[in-house]
Amino acid sequence: MSRTISKSGRGGEWASGQKSFSLLLLLSFYGCAGNQANSTSRPLFTQATTGADQWTIRCAHSEAPNHAQDMGSLAENLKLVQGLQAKNVRLVTTPTGSTIYYGQYTKVASAQTGRLVFPPQYQQDIELIRRLSLNQRTPFFYAQPEQISKPEVAGRGEWDVSTAKGAYTLEIAVFYNTTNFSQREEAATEYVRFLREAGYNAYYRHEQVRSYVFVGEFSDTDIVVANGTPQMGPKVEQFIARNEAEFRHISENGQIIKQQMPNGQFAPPLSYLVPVPSMRSAELHPSASPRRRGEVPRDTAGQPSR
Predict the structure, then answer these.
(1) Which residue, 32, 41, 241, 284, is the most exposed by fewest CB within 10 angstroms?
(2) Which CA distances in Å does 156 have to 153, 160, 170, 211?
């Protein structure tokens, strides 16, 4: 029930294969499975961007005794800068500190990679802000992007991965918004619902930019150590074998994308175990590093260590 399509990409050839037929049916409802030429379902990349993640520039922050006055003065100076719009400067003051923000931006798809990146206007604004000098100082040198609506730690939902009973769980899917798709949380939640209706303990985690899907509950005894390297134990491998189509690889928005391995070959990324986080854990994946924190290592060919 799957097919593979290949095309040339940066750095070599890559191929994407669709996951199971059941997942495709589920995702077609949310518009995540329609980038096929002959598809008649609502495609992933044709929806409106309403609800897409919004970003701003955090220009400066102070908790000094006179923070309100100091930041207020800086904000007024920022409004006078040629090339910036005064109406986009915002000052937020609390009893403990004051912060200056500028602008509001929505990431766009890169023409080269298809991944979401900040638009040219953002790049122009933040570079200008960082270069600004006042009385031989650069008060905005450490300006950085900040997401406007961060997920609340409380109220993550009954299927948040923090509610899993084991010490580890298996990551099998990731969803992210694009310029034409803004329902990554809904798609991940419905995939979890689909897996639960099939009898599996499945969970999600909605982070600032991506939503992840996990399945299964495993203990420390399900990880074995050989030659000093932690490996998936027999129970984990048997669990994956029960549903290879869903559990063997990690999908991105319903597609299995082949990636270049250290040995130069292209292969679909394998699922892996991650520690179950606490409810108060802000993010399960705090960095964009290809090597995820806490994962059970695989060998250089991209296969589970054995």
Answers:
(1) 241
(2) 6, 6, 19, 12
Q: Is 19 exposed, middle or buried (0-12, 13-18, 19+ CB in 10 A)?
A: buried
> pLDDT truncated to tens, each residue of the chain (306 aa)?
232 222 233 333 334 445 554 555 555 555 554 443 333 322 222 222 334 668 899 999 999 999 999 999 999 999 999 999 999 999 999 888 999 999 999 888 777 777 788 999 999 999 999 999 988 899 999 999 988 765 554 457 889 998 998 889 999 999 988 766 678 889 999 999 999 999 999 999 988 788 999 999 999 899 888 887 888 899 999 999 999 999 999 999 888 888 888 888 898 889 999 898 865 554 555 433 333 333 454 433 344 443
pTM greater than 0.85: no
Inter-axis angle of helices 184-197 and 21-30, to 10 degrees? 140
Instruction: State which amino acid sits at residue 11.
Output: G
